[in-house]
Amino acid sequence: MSDLLAIGASGVRTYQGALTTTSENIANAGVEGYARRSATIAEVGAASGTYSSSTLNGLGSRIAGTARSADGLRSAAVRTASADLARTESGSAWLDRIQTALTGNQVSGRVTSFFASATTLAADPTSSAARTAMLESGTTVAGAFQSTGRALDQVAADLDSTADQATAALNGFGRALARVNDGLARTPAGSAASASLADQRDRLLEQMAAIVDVTVAADSLGRATVKLGDAGGPVFVSGGDAGAVTYARSAGAVSFALFRDGQVSAVSPNGGALGGVVDGANRVAEARGTLNGIARDFGDAVNAFQAAGQTLTGTAPGADMFAIDDDVPTEMSLALTNPDDIAAASVGGGTRDGSNLATLAAARASSKVEGRTTTLVATNAAALEQRRLVADAQSAIRDGAVSARDAVSGVNLDAEAVDLLRFQQAYQASSKVIQVARDIFQSIIGIN
Q1: pTM (2 decimals)?
Q2: Helices (DSSP H) in 246-368: which residue ranges?
Q3: Which of 14, 126, 252, 301 has the greatest count of CB atoms below 10 A from its CB?
């Protein structure tokens, strides 16, 4: 009789636990990163080495542990897809910023207006209004180069700030993962606490993958060892120890380093937001270099035109029209302030001569300043559009990877509702066993 009571009691405890696990799944159905759990039910067998007729029917049931529905390969696929998408989206954002910087001040249009004012002056070299208009146009061109160059510098500064924030977040995730690893080592396997820590581990790994591509290996306790990059990359987190990633930029080139256990390792991000930072930094440096070259060639061509001619007052050669910074050519300024100092005439040509302006027209054609500026803008725009198309494809890939993962680890409310009813009936049946045992026991007492 006591066996019957014990069996019924064990069933009540078992299915109460199963109902609790199912209720936990239902309550967390909408929680991102939560992996479905199930109670593993096992029979309570006789003690080892004992055998008698009283143990032939078993001793009831128990919850052997909490199983977590997860697939490591599918989770890794999500991390890889997330890292690829994050790199492309981050790179696209920087390309968009560069595009805004290149087009916001209309450098090409300002240069065209400057050359147009020179053509107007050639028609009437003595015109004070035409000379003034050419100098005003020169001021506008210099301002456009300055503003565009500074806008690109601001993009680079914002990129540095973003990279610093991303590395700080990555280091924070690394420290948190080390603590989770330590918790997994101290928590009994198959427990609800262990499943909760595993959920935290996977969320942290996915957050890391959005910053930089990672390779993950888990031991028998579920502790994650994380390498930055591929399997040959430096170890970032191992057990309860985490390293620290740093960022630096020099002469337009960016670099990342990992400090761990007193050693320094170079890090080359191929994915995540940091991969996008690398791409963005390269694009900014290329655009800056090209714009510097255009500004230098434009200023040199105009100054060469001045040096080859004669001013309205007969001074030859003419003084430089633009002052150009050798280190940062876009930081040019108009050096000529007197409209009469424009060297429109050839040497010895007289006040009404404007033939030297043909030299400027020839320089315009040979330097191709306008065309190079247009090409710079168009090339960046094409790269931006291509990145956006790639991002659309990678977004679809990531969505597919997430769906595949969630098909295994996600909570299906219909299935949970079925389990809820099933475990409820089992709980009620176990309670009925206890009631029957009690009634029989009371009957026996009554007979006696």
Answers
A1: 0.86
A2: 272-307, 357-367
A3: 14
